[in-house]
Design brief:
11 helices; binds thiamine diphosphate; single chain; six-stranded parallel beta sheet; binds magnesium ion; about 40% helix; alpha/beta
Length: about 325
């Protein structure tokens, strides 16, 4: 695979996106623990490079479908942090007008066809979007983000089969964060690599260090190019690790001692690796990266205020979009 030179501007944008995701998630967890947010939260802290690397290889008119752990993909595709916080606060200005909450955010105008609380279900939506791209004759593509656990769902196998026989322009981007709820990947599937599942469907697969933004981005560019040429689908396995438990409040007692710490080590952790590389290569100084980080902190603080102060939903809103107007 050819390694592409990544422009300084794109690197700055990708780093900003990683910071937006991390800071958005850490702040959300804080708000949740303070009792300010309803529902459930599944933070993707630790997985930022995998998410930004793939989405940065897409065009604005490409589609993504995501999961219960979907804030990162949605931010990477360009969603506004303000409306995302308003959604978490279940307010009227939310990205789905407060209807969806954390697990059901979408924005058709950005090609985000939906987060999903049903594990594996996104694969059917993303496969449908890829079929639409093929039928309409554009060279648009679709990306299905999924976890390692979702690989054991029927949806995934049916979608992969259909995508494979029809050569659909879809990337199955599997973030292998090592766990499905409390079950380690080594226990819930026999192969060591999720990517081996692609063999049974005769499609190309690549394994990436999901914490290496460069590796993920370069591989995703290749995968997107193949899909646009009609040589899809492609499966990417992005090996990474989630820092939180399955949800905010899960004490994660099932993790072996020292495992989390080993993934946080500077030679393994996404931010430390990115920063060390771009500073060593002379692309950015430490101060320039800190400035981006601090700008994101101010953006996140402002977005939280927007969400918190947005107008609450009246109780009758629960019936909106449920029945035909005339029938109410
Ligand atoms: C069809 C279905 N089965 C089970 C669940 C309960 N559940 C929610 S998340 C999850 C684990 C998903 O693991 P993985 O796909 O690895 O994603 P991760 O949480 O690691 O991002 C399960 C079993 C569900 N929401 N939907
Ligand atoms: Mg998982």
């Amino acid at each position: 695979m050819k390694k592409k030179n990544i422009s300084r501007d794109l690197l700055a944008t990708m780093y900003r996106r990683m910071e937006q995701i991390r800071q958005f998630e850490l702040k959300s967890a804080e708000l949740y623990q303070a009792g300010e947010l309803p529902g459930f939260l599944h933070p993707c802290v630790g997985q930022e490079a995998a998410e930004v690397g793939v989405v940065s290889a897409l065009r604005a008119d490409d589609f993504i479908a995501t999961t219960h752990r979907g804030h990162g993909h949605i931010i990477a595709k360009g969603a506004d942090l303000k409306t995302m916080y308003a959604e978490l606060f279940a307010k009227k200005d939310g990205i789905c007008r407060g209807n969806g909450g954390s697990m059901h955010m979408m924005d058709r105008s950005l090609g985000i066809i939906g987060a999903n609380g049903i594990v594996g279900q996104g694969s059917t939506l993303a496969t449908g979007a890829a079929l639409a791209c093929q039928i309409s004759g554009t060279d648009g593509i679709s990306v299905c983000f999924m976890g390692d656990g979702a690989q054991n769902e029927g949806f995934f196998h049916e979608s992969l089969n259909m995508a494979s026989i029809w050569n659909l322009p879809i990337i199955f981007a599997i973030e292998n964060n090592q766990y499905a709820e409390s079950t380690p990947q080594s226990y819930h599937m026999r192969p060591e690599d999720v990517a081996t599942r692609a063999q049974g469907y005769g499609i190309k697969a690549y394994i990436c260090d999901g914490n290496d933004l460069f590796d993920v981005y370069n591989t995703a560019i290749e995968a997107a190019m193949l899909c646009r040429k009609g040589e899809g689908p492609v499966l990417l396995e992005l090996k990474t690790y989630r820092w939180f438990g399955h949800y905010v409040g899960d004490p994660a007692v099932y993790r072996p001692k020292g495992e989390l710490e080993s993934w946080k080590a500077p030679n393994k952790e996404a931010f430390a690796k990115f920063r060390a590389r771009v500073i060593e290569e002379g692309t950015f100084t430490e101060e320039e990266l800190d400035k981006i980080r601090d700008e994101v902190t101010a953006e996140v603080d402002e977005a939280v205020l927007f969400g918190r102060n947005s107008e609450p939903l009246p109780p009758e809103f629960a019936l909106e979009n449920v029945y035909e107007e005339e029938l109410i």
